[in-house]
Amino acid sequence: MTTPPPPPPPPPLLPANAAPSAAVPEAPGTPAVAPTKRSIEAKWGGPITKAGWTGIPNILIRRQRTLGIDALDLNILLHLLSYWWEDENHPHPSKETLAQAMDVSPSTIQRRIRSMEAGGLLKRIERRREKNRSETNLYDLTLLRDLLEPHALQEIEDRNAGHERRRKRMTSVTKVES
Hints:
Blueprint: H1 40-44, H2 46-51, H3 58-62, H4 71-82, H5 95-102, H6 106-118, E1 123-125, E2 138-140, H7 142-171
Antiparallel strand pairs: 1-2
């Protein structure tokens, strides 16, 4: 009696906002890698990851105060990030959609986005249809990305300096006098 071949490995996990073309197919014959404790599915479980997830730069959260981003603005940015599927395809949820998700009014969303635009965190791009009707705005978050980069570089530099101090401390020998 022959045993059936094992089932093929599951496809790699992608964020809900990633295009299927973003997947890098595994080479034929490559064994599937078991999830590690660091993997998203291992942390959150299959149903939650299959429902979708968003990659958020840690530096945005860690430097929130330094960047002058309050809790509501951060929440708006997180929602916008969840709609940013591809670099060239700017997110475009309606103010009403954002407002409902956060239990605030659309005018609050509009006011806060206008303020973040004035602060250089994002750029609002109006879209018009025929007869001067509006579509949802596009939100260009590349300004935020550019703003975060020097903070990220500083974070990396600080982390490397800390690693170097620990390495020196661990490898230095202190002569004990008797």
